[in-house]
Automatic annotation (TrEMBL):
Organism: Oceanicola granulosus (strain ATCC BAA-861 / DSM 15982 / KCTC 12143 / HTCC2516)
Record-given protein name: Flavin-dependent thymidylate synthase
InterPro entries associated with the record: Thymidylate_synthase_ThyX, Thymidylate_synthase_ThyX_sf
Class of this enzyme: transferase
Lineage start: Bacteria, Pseudomonadati, Pseudomonadota, Alphaproteobacteria, Rhodobacterales
Function field: Catalyzes the reductive methylation of 2'-deoxyuridine-5'-monophosphate (dUMP) to 2'-deoxythymidine-5'-monophosphate (dTMP) while utilizing 5,10-methylenetetrahydrofolate (mTHF) as the methyl donor, and NADPH and FADH(2) as the reductant.
Amino acid sequence: MTLTPEQQAEIDELRATPRPTLRAVSEGMEGHLYKANPVLDHGFVRVIDYMGDDAAICQAARVSYGRGTKAVSNDEGLIRYLMRHWHSTPFEMCEVKLHVKLPVFVARQWIRHRTANVNEYSARYSILDREFYIPEPEKLAAQSVTNNQGRGEALGPEEGARVLEWLKADAARAYDHYEAMIGQDGQQGLARELARMNLPANIYTQWYWKVDLHNLFHFLRLRADAHAQYEIRVYAEEICRLVKDWVPHAYAAFEDYRLGGATLSGKALECLRRMLAGEAVTQETSGMSKGEWREFQAVLG
């Protein structure tokens, strides 16, 4: 992970000047404020600001449902009820703003989640740093034979070394040409907004990403999943660690019902009932496709 001297100075200054407040404070999140948490080789995630805590979720729910929540004996039980029954609005009362440094190809995947406010570092105005994501050798893998959007077995040592050399050389060459194009020593210099097109997708970018807790949980359910691409999953796992300290009751419910739970189709539920009744159900008698059956078997372990 690489922080500029200016970024480190900003972090040090912000952490050295605490301010009194009357708003809800999460002690766990206060410990994470402004700190840069390393991800991948040059990336990081840091919390810039947040709003709300577990109590804010319960406060919103009790306003929304009034006396209907009186049967819930405590905040933790209420939060678990809300998560179990897919109530979303109370979780939207909490928000977090993150500063994320990430490779461009990860950013393009991340931005598919269109329920956040995003402001990205602009390569039209500023010059991108010479920082590229280069995978660890064990993360270089062949195309999966069962999943068109995933990776399979790791490449052999010889092929892996060749791929790494290409990645490093191509990135360096592209950046050399980028610098040469925008340089103004003896030439006009190409506009930055045009020169950036030559840069590879593994160069690092940065953005501020602000999202409410409901939509953050949706992001984490998909991106912290074991089937998610490794390079975005490690960011999601780091954010999970931060959220766990921010809203511990909400995160525990999320971990139980979303990350650790499973949704079954009507066919899958019927097959499960038949199995519990002692019937030997096969893919041929299940009414499921081979892909559905394989996923059902994975849920059952």
